[in-house]
Amino acid sequence: MINEKVKAFLDEKALGDRLTEHTETIDTVEHAAQQIGCSEPEIAKTLSFVVDEKPVVVVMAGDGKVNSSKFKSYFHTKPHMIPRDKVKEITGFQPGGVCPFAVPENIPIWLDVSMKRFEYVHPAGGNEFTSVKLTPAELEKASGAEGWVDICKGWEDDNL
């Protein structure tokens, strides 16, 4: 079932047709890649953190892992994820379906440069059965991201 709030949000940006509903869960990078038919790194995973007692969302490539020192140098604190049982209350989405669209306005969204190496990335679309196919530039514009950060390890690209 498509998240109507996310669909309306993407429709306003003329991107509603990019939503795909899947028959199986896409709640992990592995499951999402299998359902979408892309590589795991092309999955745009959306993680929610607490920075200065406020929520922050970071979207990164599926093969990226948060580098604590890079995170701390940018956000001036160690990375602390929002507790799983608080994710829906804070972001409006269940874990496995958190996306960078239609989140509460007080939550800044940051994009990690690890996604820039792909023609398309696939973030969740508001639940664990829906994805969105976007270019990194479309993701930046549609999400209203604050900007790009470099806080991941586990991937490398000499061209960035």
Automatic annotation (TrEMBL):
Residues 23-141 form the YbaK/aminoacyl-tRNA synthetase-associated domain. It holds the Pfam family tRNA_edit. One of its GO terms (molecular function) is aminoacyl-tRNA deacylase activity. InterPro entries: YbaK/aa-tRNA-synt-asso_dom_sf, YbaK/aa-tRNA-synth-assoc-dom. This is Cys-tRNA(Pro) deacylase, prolyl-tRNA editing enzyme YbaK/EbsC. It comes from Lachnospira pectinoschiza.
